[in-house]
């Protein structure tokens, strides 16, 4: 049986990425050109700057991915590309590039949902993992509790009503002067703080046990800081980071464990940038052990945006017969 090689492209936000994936689970190369340093100056991602940078970098990133994998475009069986959700101008760069290569080389074009990519990151290092399982996707733009029924077959059980988990991390980090992106900085600083020092609210949504809300805890942190400043009290940034992180982590763990039991699933995975958070990983590991659930998580490099995860998702879509035409467009609010 012939090997299937997918060249994957990801450009939905501020990472220009390309990867070559063999038979769906083996990553031959995974090249990521991050724009973080550029957007740091503005405290967040500037869409127009992101699009322009993608155009500058994309050919070079693809070249590197092919070279590192020791293949040429002639060896590639299909092109996988993220076509949504994300920033429209950023997505368009990857989609146009993917179409151009697929057309020139006369190979199939497979559009991939970005969240499907994040979930699929779990297949890379856990060769034995197969659906069904529950997956918590926590990133800068998304907080979804997804039942993965089969490859390409998803049911969203819960989602955030307001801010995404990563967005809350980034906003709180900015409020305590840590800069962008805040998630990794809060993760680090929290190790010096006391997670029980301040009680921030944990939102549970009535009648929607799997939904999330993070704007309340974010506001509560801002109020706490304002209160301290008004009273002229110095606040402890590490305690705020640790206590905020605990409030977010507790809710994520509680809802996920509730869902995994309610749906009778035996396997649970996490995905997305926030899934690299050390406190969240440890708490989920404990909770899964207590509940007799197998726990899966990707290495940090496969948690944040990358093209390897898109290549894995594209492989299963390819096997299922998904083929996109030259009219494939970027869809900023694409549904899973
Ligand atoms: O998956 P990702 O790269 O992009 C999106 O699809 O949104 O996620 C980026 C998000 C940012 O909000 C960043 O602050 C957060 O993931 N993040 C973390 C950590 N590393 C990245 N949040 C908490 N702890 C971390 N260690
Ligand atoms: Zn992402």
TrEMBL record:
InterPro entries according to UniProt: ATPase_NBD, Gcp-like_dom, KAE1/TsaD, TsaD
Cofactor or coenzyme needed: Fe(2+)
Predominant localisation class:
cytoplasm
Q: Per UniProt, what is one Pfam family of this protein?
A: TsaD
Q: Where does substrate bind?
A: 137-141, 170, 183, 187, 277
Sequence ranges assigned to domain Gcp-like in this UniProt record: 26-311
Catalysed conversion reaction: L-threonylcarbamoyladenylate + adenosine(37) in tRNA = N(6)-L-threonylcarbamoyladenosine(37) in tRNA + AMP + H(+)
MF GO annotations? tRNA N(6)-L-threonylcarbamoyladenine synthase activity
Keywords in UniProt for this one? Acyltransferase, Cytoplasm, Iron, Metal-binding, Transferase, tRNA processing
Is Nucleotide-binding included in the keywords of this UniProt record? no
Q: Please tell me where Fe cation binds in this chain.
A: 114, 118, 305
The EC number on file is: 2.3.1.234
Q: Where are the transmembrane segments?
A: none
Q: What HAMAP family is this protein classified in? A: TsaD
Check the record and name the PANTHER family matching this protein: TRNA N6-ADENOSINE THREONYLCARBAMOYLTRANSFERASE, TRNA N6-ADENOSINE THREONYLCARBAMOYLTRANSFERASE, MITOCHONDRIAL
Q: Which family does it belong to?
A: Belongs to the KAE1 / TsaD family.
Function statement? Required for the formation of a threonylcarbamoyl group on adenosine at position 37 (t(6)A37) in tRNAs that read codons beginning with adenine. Is involved in the transfer of the threonylcarbamoyl moiety of threonylcarbamoyl-AMP (TC-AMP) to the N6 group of A37, together with TsaE and TsaB. TsaD likely plays a direct catalytic role in this reaction.
Name of the molecule in the record: tRNA N6-adenosine threonylcarbamoyltransferase
Name the source organism: Bariatricus massiliensis
Phylogenetic lineage = Bacteria, Bacillati, Bacillota, Clostridia, Lachnospirales
